[in-house]
Each structure stands twice: as C-alpha cells, then as structure tokens.
C-alpha cells in the first residue's frame, strides 16, 4: 500500500483532526460506515440489474464491492485534509488580527498574559479566538505561561505561526524589549 498510495491518504492525520476538533471515534466511524456502504452497494445494484434481466458474473460485483469499500474507506482522509487546509488558512488570517490586537494591548501597557487574554476576549464567537481563549484560561488554571500554551497549540494543530508568537511573547517578559515592533514586524504567512 505504501508504494502506490501516498501516506496522507491512508494514515490518520492527527493534527488535522485536532484542528477540526474531530474525535478519532467519529472519524473512524465515518470510515467504517462508508466502507460498509462500499461493500454492500455493488451486490445490491447487481441484484437490482438482474431483476431487469441484466446479469453480471459473480466476480464483477465482488471486485466492485472490494474496490468501492477501499475507496470509500480512504475518502474521509482526503476530506479531512482539505478541510484542515482551509481551516489553517482561516486560522492564519484571524491570527494576523489577533497579533495586531495583542500588539495594541502591549502598547497600551498590558502585560503579556493580560494582552493575550484581552485580545482573545475581543473576538469571542469566532472559533480561532475561542480556541486561543480556552488555551489561555487553561494556562491560568495550570499556572503555565501563556506562551507555553501557544507552543503546544502550534505543535498540536500544525500552525507554526503560533510558535513564532510564543517566542516573541516569551522574550517580551525581558524588559525593555520593544514588543510592539516585533509583533508588527512578524505577521503570519499563509501556508
């Protein structure tokens, strides 16, 4: 299988599932349901055609059934990859606005944690801002610096721009670094 089909088609894409907030159970449930449909549909169609006088050899629905099951089993992987790519593009666009808000908060005198939390609060209702706000709330509870959350999210979601932001904010705790200029000078690049 590895020789003929690219790994992105048949391997579970953990970062993509995390980005889309999709559980492994629902992902594999969809894969198995589609594979089941692929197994059952060709024999049913063959039976339906035989009622109208069109008969196929037994091998035709059997081979079609196996091919359809494999193709439909792999289909969710392609779907997830496309949706995750679109979500990353959206994430990067929204992150640009978030960075601007953080820069303005820092320029107004807010500390790093407060700037991040205030910026995330402004965009409530938008999934990227909500995701960031959840991470900052969790970091407050855990007692971790918010840039650790940004790095972890960067790794988990496959969004390297979050890691760049985390590095800038970690350096911002070392006064008197002009964080506003660093944040404005490093907007995320689209993938």
Task: Kindly describe this structure.
It is a single chain. The protein is mainly α. 76% of the residues lie in helices and 0% in strands. The chain is built from 9 helices and no strands. It has helices at 7-10, 14-19, 24-51, 59-107, 112-122, 127-142, 146-157, 160-172, 179-185. The chain is rod-shaped. The two termini are 29 Å apart.
Secondary structure elements and their pairing?
Elements lengths: L6 H4 L3 H6 L4 H28 L7 H49 L4 H11 L4 H16 L3 H12 L2 H13 L6 H7 L6
Helix pairs in contact: 3-4, 4-5, 4-9, 5-6, 6-7, 7-8
Q: What does the main sheet amount to?
A: none
Number of distinct helices: 9
Query: Which residues form runs of ≥5 with pLDDT under 50?
Result: none
Strand content: under 5%
How many extended strands?
Answer: 0
Radius of gyration: 24 Å
Termini Cα gap: 29 Å
Average the pLDDT over all residues and give the rounded result.
Answer: 85
The computed structural class is mainly alpha
User: How would you describe the oligomerization state of the chains in this entry?
Assistant: single chain
Which overall shape is indicated by the principal axes computed on the Cα atoms? rod-shaped
């Amino acid at each position: 299988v590895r020789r003929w089909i690219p790994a992105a088609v048949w391997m579970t894409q953990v970062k993509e599932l995390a980005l889309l907030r999709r559980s492994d159970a629902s992902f594999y449930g969809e894969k198995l349901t589609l594979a089941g449909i692929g197994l059952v549909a060709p024999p049913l169609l063959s039976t339906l055609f035989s009622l109208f006088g069109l008969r196929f050899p037994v091998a035709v629905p059997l081979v079609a059934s196996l091919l359809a099951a494999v193709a439909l089993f792999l289909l969710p992987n392609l779907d997830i990859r496309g949706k995750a790519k679109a979500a990353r593009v959206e994430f990067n666009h929204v992150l640009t606005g978030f960075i601007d808000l953080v820069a303005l908060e820092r320029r107004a005198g807010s500390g790093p944690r407060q700037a991040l939390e205030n910026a995330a609060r402004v965009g409530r209702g938008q999934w990227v801002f909500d995701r960031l706000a959840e991470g900052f709330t969790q970091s407050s509870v855990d007692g971790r610096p918010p840039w650790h959350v940004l790095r972890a999210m960067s790794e988990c979601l496959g969004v390297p721009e979050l890691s760049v932001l985390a590095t800038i904010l970690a350096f911002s705790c070392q006064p008197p670094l002009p964080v506003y200029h660093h944040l404005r000078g490093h907007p995320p690049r689209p993938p």
